[in-house]
Amino acid sequence: MTELPMTVRADGLPSQVTIYEVGPRDGLQNEKALVPTGVKAEFVQRLLAAGLPIVEATSFVHPKWVPQLADAADLMELLGEAGRDCPVLVPNERGLDRALELGARHVAIFGSATETFAQKNLNRSLDEQFAMFEPTVRRARDAGLDVRAYVSMCFGDPWEGAVPVDQVVGVGKRLFDLGASQLSLGDTIGVGTAGHVTALVDGFRGAGMSVDQLAMHFHDTYGQALANAFAALRAGITTYDASAGGLGGCPYAKSATGNLATEDLVWMLRGLGIETGVDLDQVVSTSVWMAGHLGRPSPSAVVRALAQSPA
Amino acid sequence: MTELPMTVRADGLPSQVTIYEVGPRDGLQNEKALVPTGVKAEFVQRLLAAGLPIVEATSFVHPKWVPQLADAADLMELLGEAGRDCPVLVPNERGLDRALELGARHVAIFGSATETFAQKNLNRSLDEQFAMFEPTVRRARDAGLDVRAYVSMCFGDPWEGAVPVDQVVGVGKRLFDLGASQLSLGDTIGVGTAGHVTALVDGFRGAGMSVDQLAMHFHDTYGQALANAFAALRAGITTYDASAGGLGGCPYAKSATGNLATEDLVWMLRGLGIETGVDLDQVVSTSVWMAGHLGRPSPSAVVRALAQSPA
Question: Is B19's pLDDT higher than 60?
């Protein structure tokens, strides 16, 4: 039997893609179940062993807001040296201090593309968020760390509706100017469609920014995540956020469901002959194992298909 | 609030798409629940009222094989004149006779692209299936009916693995030569990826067949259905099979899950500014209503998102 999916390359696509795994942080942050720290460490280790090149480990956000990740320091201790290469989210200088103490080498900040979500999530105006990020990014850079900037609500916002491309490009430019090395453009509520993705990438390109410094972060709320990833591939994007087993969502956004599942993305990329370095079977078995800890089946289509037919 | 999804056209896509609704036939055929005939009639009527231009109503297959559709004749009586414009599946001449008696104007046959599935599903070899179809298609055409031909396993087959493009093109050519007016190319087990879709369409085009006579029928088993639809749009395909609420699958194929959901497809097309004539809200409310009759939530992402946030 010929292996599936059949590999058929398409013209004009990148030959290689980097998957930025967000399951342990963005995924578990949005799960009700409190997962033991040892299980989280094994989750990160298994994902790294499956060939995922970047695994975001946790977040140094205040436990009051995200109790699921209150064990961030313990997790980093458990992960040891390998954990220092895993990016961690730092919402502010206090979070950065904790990450630096633990030897983190890569951090991420989390901004908003819209006024309303900046108010709801950061309790700041859109402009004020940059003032908050400035010392965090500067100090991280001075300490030799890479800084990724998440930009949420890049396509639509539950309070404001459709978000203009120019607005997102403007926010992105300010984050690059502050010193971010990569932007993760998030469709936090999953409403974006393929043409909008292309327009957003073109907007950044047209404003003189490098597409190589952009990552796309899609949610599958309206079933569009993978179609949007295909559109982004055609637009030249080579870094994609994905969550093993499709874990997670956004607790602050109305009707947000899970992230694009790593396995569904890998299936498409494998079919397109695009290298990721990821062992699909290992990610699937990791997601099945984690689903057992969470007490519910994985929402990833590929996990469901392969787990029920172990061909 | 600006309406979502934001419409952003993409270059080189068709301006209009025909959605061929398969929920009442392909969907309900694969549901365990036996739905009362009156509910089925209302389902078809509501889908037509929602602007779906073609709604396949039922199948005149032997009730022993598909007990869910044993009421095909009663349903056609209930639908009356409107039902005669709804295509019906006819597996063979006996089915055609029943459809003709009831005044059907459009019929569909169901073939296989692979040897093994022809054996399993039709109890015939790949070659023998054409001999079975020949009198059915000829007599339907002589009676002035349109004949659509479904081709299953066009991308992968659970027993044979990847299916070569040339093999599918060869099967398609024979069905056109018999007198089919449209082919519906099915990814019955949902394993195909975007580049494979493009290659398949190019294969038909290269063999001199008209892309306007091709429809694509995607399943979401591996989460690829909508990405594949986007690839097919780029390849010039303007007819897409979809199932309201994502109902259905294939009872004979290992690990097959639901069809591409009509709502998820409409969301993408609306975002791309591609006309379908379909009222999304009406389809969603129809799917929610049908989910109530089936006793389980709709698998469509858009239905879940819009039904829980009736904004």
Answer: yes
Decide which of A22 and B34 is more confident: A22
Count of domains forming chain A: 1
Q: Which CATH number do you get for residue B208?
A: 3.20.20.70
To the nearest 10°, report the CA torsion of B198, B200, B202, B205: -140
CB contact under 8 A, A308 and B267: no
CB-nearest partner of A193 from B5, B231, B305: B5
Give residue B309's pLDDT.
52
Instruction: Say if the ipTM goes beyond 0.85.
Output: yes
Q: Note whether A196 contacts B: Cβ–Cβ < 8 A.
A: yes
Hey, is B223 helix, strand or coil? coil
- CA-based nearest distance A45→chain B, Å: 25
B174: left (phi over 0), alpha (psi -120 to 50) or beta: alpha
Return the pLDDT at B304.
Answer: 87
| CA–CA separation, A10 and A157 (whole Å) | 33
Instruction: Report CA dihedral (A57, A185, B234, B9) to the nearest 10 degrees.
Output: 160
Q: How far is A202 from chain B (nearest CA, A)?
A: 12
Mean pLDDT of A103-128: 95
Pick from A155, A195, A271: CB nearest B195: A271
Active site residue B250: yes
Q: Is residue A7 situated within a structural domain?
A: no
Tell me, yes or no, if A270 comes closer than 8 A to chain B by beta carbon. Answer: yes
Alpha-carbon distance of B77 to A230, in angstroms, equals: 45
Rounded-to-integer distance, Cα B218 and Cα B197, Å: 10
| Distance of alpha carbon B120 from alpha carbon B110, whole angstroms | 13
Answer yes or no: is pLDDT of B256 > 50: no
Please provide the DSSP assignment of A181-227 as one string: SEEEEEETTS---HHHHHHHHHHHHHTT--GGGEEEEEB-TTS-HHH
CB atoms within 10 A of CB B134: 15
Cβ–Cβ of A309/B162 closer than 8 Å?
Answer: no
Structure token pair of residue A150 = 């998440």
Residue B258 confidence (pLDDT): 84
Residue of B nearest to A309 (CA): B255
Residue A212 lies in a domain: yes
Say if B74 falls within a structural domain.
yes
- For residue A303, the enclosing domain spans 18-308
Contact A224, B264 (CB under 8 A): yes
CA torsion angle B79 B82 B83 B85 (round to 10):
180
Task: Give the model confidence (pLDDT) of A144-155 as tens digits.
Answer: 999 999 999 999
A59 Cα to chain B: minimum distance (Å): 28
Is B2 within the bounds of a domain?
Answer: no
Q: What's the pLDDT at B299?
A: 85
Amino acid identity at A252: Y
State the best of B6, B262, B265 to mutate against chain A, taking most chain A CBs within 10 Å: B6
Q: Which of chain A's residues have a Cβ under 8 Å away from the Cβ of B229?
A: 227
Under the banding of pLDDT at 50, 70 and 90, the label for residue A166 is very high
